[in-house]
Amino acid sequence: MALEVLIHGPLSRAEIARRLDLSQPSLTRLSAPLLAAGLLVEGEDQSGGRAGRPSRPLDVVPSSRHFIGVKLTGDEALGVVTDLRANVVSFASRAIPSHEPAEVADTVAELVAELAGPTSSVTAVGVGLGGLVTDQALVVRAPFLGWSNVPLGPMLRERTGYPTVVDNDLVAFTEAEHWFGAGRGLDRFAVLTIGAGVGYGVVIHDQIVLSADSGIGLVGHWPLQSYGAVCPEGHRGCAQALLAIPSITKAVSTVLDRPVTYDQCLELAEAGDPAARRIIDEAGRGLGRLIAAVGALTVPELIVLGGEGVHLAKVAANAVAEGIRQDRDARASALKTHILESDTTQWCRGAAVLAIQTYVLAE
Ligand SMILES: [Zn+2]
C-alpha cells in the first residue's frame, strides 16, 4: 500500500481500496502502522463539507526517509542523497584511488559517510555500476573495473552499517524512470542511454524485463551501419562503435588531429565544423535507427532517452528524425520520445531508487 501511495499519491482511501482490491476495514488496519511510523500522512479533508464520512487522502511524507545512491565509474564514485520520492537533496563525489575492490569499497564507504552526515536519517544505500550483478549484490563481472566475483554488497554493508543493494546501473536507471520518472503509470516503455556505452532497458506490463544477461549490454551491439568503426567485440558500425561518447570523441579528435572533449564535439557540430557535423549527424542517424528498432520490437508507449551523452539527440535532432523515417513504416503512428537532461546524477538517482524499492517492498 505504501508503494501505491508512494508512486501515485496522494490517493483517497476509496481509490487505494479499489487499486489494491482491499476492504475499508483491511485498509484501515494496514494503514495504521504506516501512519504511526510517520511514513504516511493524512491530507486535508476532500469531501468539501458534504454530509457523510470525511475523505482525507493518504500521502507519503517524502522527507521521512532518505536514501543514498552511488554510481561507480572507472575513476570516480558519484553519490546523491534523495528523499523517499527520489528527489535529489545533495551530491558529492570522490576519486577512486585504484580498482582494488577493498580500496573501492573504502572510498564508497567514505562517500556514504560524507553524504549521510552526522545526524543521519539515511535508511539504505544503493550502488549502480556497469556490469553483471546477482541478487546477492555480487558483482559477477564489471569489465571497466577489471572485476569478477566481487561481493561488493556485503563489503559495503560491513563498512557502512547500512543495508546496501548493488545492481546494474541501467537496471537502476530504468527503475527510476519506472517509479518516479517519465515512465510512471505507463504499461510499456523503453529507455535508451548514451554514455560510456549504449544502454537499453524495458518495462513491459509495469514490470522491468530482466534476465541473467541484464548487464552485459546486448543492445549496445545492435548493428546500425555496414561501414564505420569497429567496437572491441569486433562489430563494425554497432551502436557502441557509432554512438558511445568515447567513439564520438575519438572520431572527431582523429579527424581534427587534436584531443577534443565530447561537449566540444557537440559544440563544433553546432558551430558548423564540417567534420564534427558529419560525425555527429551520422551518430544521430544511427540513434534514430536504434529508436526505430526499439519502437518496432518492444512497441513502447514512450522511449526515454538519457545518459550523460544524450545531448546528441538534440544537437542531431534532424538526423535522428531521418534515421527513424528510414526504418519505420510510414503508416505507423509516430514514436513518442522523451529526452532527459544530460546529468550524471541521473545514474546516482537510479541507484538510490534501488534502495528505495528494496525498503518499500520490504515494508
Ligand atoms: Zn559491438
How would you describe the overall organization of this protein?
Helix 9 (262-270) packs across helix 10 (274-298). The strands form four sheets. This protein has a five-stranded mixed beta sheet with strand order 5-4-3-6-10. Strands 13-12-11-14-15 form a five-stranded mixed beta sheet, with helices on both faces. A three-stranded antiparallel beta sheet has the order 7-8-9, with no helix packed on it. It has 363 residues and is an alpha/beta fold. The protein is built from 13 helices and 15 strands. Helix content is 41%, strand content 21%. The chain starts with a helix and ends with a helix. The chain has helices spanning 2-8, 13-20, 24-36, 101-116, 152-160, 169-180, 239-243, 245-256, 262-270, 274-298, 312-315, 317-327, 345-362, and strands at 40-42, 58-60, 66-72, 76-83, 88-95, 122-129, 132-133, 139-142, 147-150, 164-168, 188-194, 198-204, 207-208, 302-306, 337-339. A hairpin with a 3-residue loop joins strand 3 and strand 4 (76-83). The mean pLDDT is 91. Zinc ion (ZN) is lined by residues 221, 231, 233, 235, 238, 240-241.
